């Protein structure tokens, strides 16, 4: 399998070539030149597989240039009961008749991002060992991504992580999770400012090509292809766990921000997994819901982004969306370039007036959004009906999912974080706090390591230069 850019300006590359990269050199996103399609009977033969075996069966189709034995070993090291809480890795739990919760949040940071990032940690380490190189990962986070990346990269040879976060603006739990890591290859930089200040510094450093090359600066943000590929696996897992016949369809409800998670569901569908609907749920920041309803993709400016009780979905634009649009426009890179130029100049593009909107309609996507009140109501409703406590992000997905529920079609709702991460909203909804998983009880009293700095590009570059591997 080879990878190309959605903007057409990259020579075909292998999985390993694009593994450590972010954007394609032409500013586009990397994508397989053709999706692997399941052979007849293949899906049926996967019913008895363990999660690691299923992951290997799927990922070997994408990572064709990694030796099978190596890939299998990396996958087996990643998806263990010790790290993900159970052999199931992504267990399904019934919520009500025909409605299931797909538990994606049992990894070390209690959010679904661990599923891909834990694998990425091993893939990166292996790739660097082969080349003898090293990597300094630079990122900005307002919560989930940063901690997931740090827990994936901690202790990995050849890798250091420099993670910028807004000083005193994350939840106590999230702060403690990141700052209590004792590993010497993890560097937490608490920036005096807001998340956008952190992101601006990361952009400025990344735009300095000489600095970037000299210090082997890399990223692990949500556009990384390997992250998307790793997420494809649990769509298969969810479908296999909730269906009995191989021609049976199921629908997935996915709380969405950057379109990384649900993009993996879309790819699973393209591979031949019988997904009926991909139900995309947003919070008040409804850029994507608006697109699927109207055909207009209108990005927001940072000051138009609302701070909500599902903060990991507070986005101004969806960084993986270009992968889907590439398919919608029949993989015409010139058209993708044209649309993204329109985004830069006028802030939106409109497919409703083109024949391509039909392709959007036929893609299986439907969408909806939720408000803070909707999420609290849904948390209460699920608690009353099932005794389970779900977090605010998951609640967003369940709320929209139920609006599209169909008789006889399993509705699989992605659980993207555990409620312990967002205690305040749970107390607001239920008048009680959620239980914390074992081992997290005393998180906030552990010693913390972090450097407080101004949002000054030169200061932060100096800090990286002094501490880089
Ligand atoms: C990142 C995140 C999301 C959004 O996922 P995308 O891949 O960006 O669409 C939803 N919920 C939680 C808890 C997250 O951390």
Task: Write a concise keyword list for the protein shown above.
469 residues, alpha/beta, Rossmann fold, six-stranded mixed sheet, five-stranded parallel sheet, 20 helices, 16% strand, binds pyridoxal-5'-phosphate
If you had to describe this structure to a student in words, what would you say it looks like?
There is one protein chain. This protein has 469 residues and is an alpha/beta fold. The protein has a domain at 231-430: Rossmann fold (3-Layer(aba) Sandwich), CATH 3.40.50.1100. Helices cover 43% and strands 16% of the residues. The protein contains 20 helices and 15 strands. The strands form 4 sheets. Strands 3-4-14-9-10-13 form a 6-stranded mixed beta sheet, with helices on both faces. It has a 5-stranded parallel beta sheet with strand order 8-5-6-7-15, sandwiched between helices. Strands 1-2 form a two-stranded antiparallel sheet. Helix 6 (113-131) packs across helix 7 and helix 11 (225-242) packs across helix 12. The radius of gyration is 21 Å and the shape is globular. Pyridoxal-5'-phosphate binds next to helix 12.
Question: Topology of this structure?
Answer:
Layout: E1 3-5, H1 15-19, E2 30-32, H2 42-45, H3 51-62, H4 68-78, H5 81-84, E3 92-96, E4 99-103, H6 113-131, E5 135-140, H7 144-153, E6 159-166, H8 172-179, E7 186-192, H9 195-207, H10 209-214, E8 217-218, H11 225-242, E9 250-255, H12 260-271, E10 275-282, H13 287-294, E11 296-298, H14 321-328, H15 333-346, E12 348-350, H16 356-361, E13 365-369, H17 372-386, H18 392-403, E14 411-415, H19 423-430, E15 451-454, H20 457-467
Parallel strand pairs: 4-14, 5-6, 5-8, 6-7, 7-15, 9-10, 9-14, 10-13
Antiparallel strand pairs: 1-2, 3-4, 11-12
Helix pairs in contact: 3-4, 3-11, 4-6, 6-7, 6-11, 11-12, 17-18, 17-19
Bound molecules: pyridoxal-5'-phosphate (PLP).
């Amino acid at each position: 399998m080879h990878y190309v850019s959605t903007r057409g300006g990259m020579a075909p590359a292998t999985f390993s070539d694009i593994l450590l990269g972010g954007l394609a050199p032409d500013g586009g996103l990397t994508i397989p030149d053709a999706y692997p399609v399941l052979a007849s009977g293949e899906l049926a033969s996967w019913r008895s597989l363990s999660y690691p075996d299923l992951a290997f069966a799927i990922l070997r189709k994408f990572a064709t240039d990694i030796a099978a034995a190596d890939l299998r070993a990396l996958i087996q090291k990643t998806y263990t009961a010790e790290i993900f809480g159970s052999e199931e890795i992504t267990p399904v739990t019934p919520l009500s008749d025909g409605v299931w919760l797909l538990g994606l949040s049992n990894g070390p940071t209690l959010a679904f991002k661990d599923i891909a990032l834990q694998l990425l940690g091993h893939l990166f380490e292996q790739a660097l060992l082969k080349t003898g190189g090293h990597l300094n990962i630079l990122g900005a986070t307002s919560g989930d991504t940063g901690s997931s990346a740090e827990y994936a990269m901690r202790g990995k040879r050849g890798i250091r992580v420099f993670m910028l976060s807004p000083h005193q603006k994350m939840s106590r739990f999230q702060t403690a999770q990141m700052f209590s890591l004792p590993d010497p290859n993890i560097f937490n930089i608490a920036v005096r400012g807001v998340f956008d200040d952190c992101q601006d510094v990361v952009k400025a450093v990344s735009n300095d090509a000489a600095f970037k090359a000299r210090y082997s600066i890399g990223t692990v943000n949500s556009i990384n292809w390997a992250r998307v590929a790793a997420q494809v696996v649990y769509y298969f897992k969810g479908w296999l766990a909730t269906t009995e016949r191989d021609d049976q369809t199921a629908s997935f409800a996915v709380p969405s921000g950057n379109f990384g998670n649900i993009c993996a569901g879309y790819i699973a569908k393209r591979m031949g997994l019988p997904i009926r609907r991909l139900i995309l749920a947003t919070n008040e920041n409804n850029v994507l819901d608006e697109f699927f309803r109207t055909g207009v993709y209108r990005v927001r400016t940072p000051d138009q982004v609302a701070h909500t009780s599902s903060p990991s979905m507070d986005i101004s634009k969806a960084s993986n969306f270009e992968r889907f649009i590439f398919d919608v426009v029949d993989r015409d890179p010139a058209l993708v370039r044209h649309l993204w130029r329109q985004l830069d100049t006028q802030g939106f593009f409109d497919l409703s007036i083109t024949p391509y909107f039909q392709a959007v309609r036929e893609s299986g996507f439907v969408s909806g959004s939720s408000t803070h009140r909707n999420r609290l109501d849904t948390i209460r409703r699920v608690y009353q009906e099932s005794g389970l406590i779900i977090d605010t992000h998951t609640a967003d997905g369940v709320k929209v999912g139920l609006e599209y529920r169909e008789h006889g079609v399993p509705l699989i709702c992605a659980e993207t974080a555990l409620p312990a991460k967002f205690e305040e909203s749970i107390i607001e909804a239920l008048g009680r706090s959620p239980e914390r998983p074992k081992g997290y009880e005393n998180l906030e009293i552990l010693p913390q390591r972090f450097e407080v700095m101004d949002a000054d590009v030169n200061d932060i570059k100096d800090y990286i230069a002094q501490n880089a591997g």
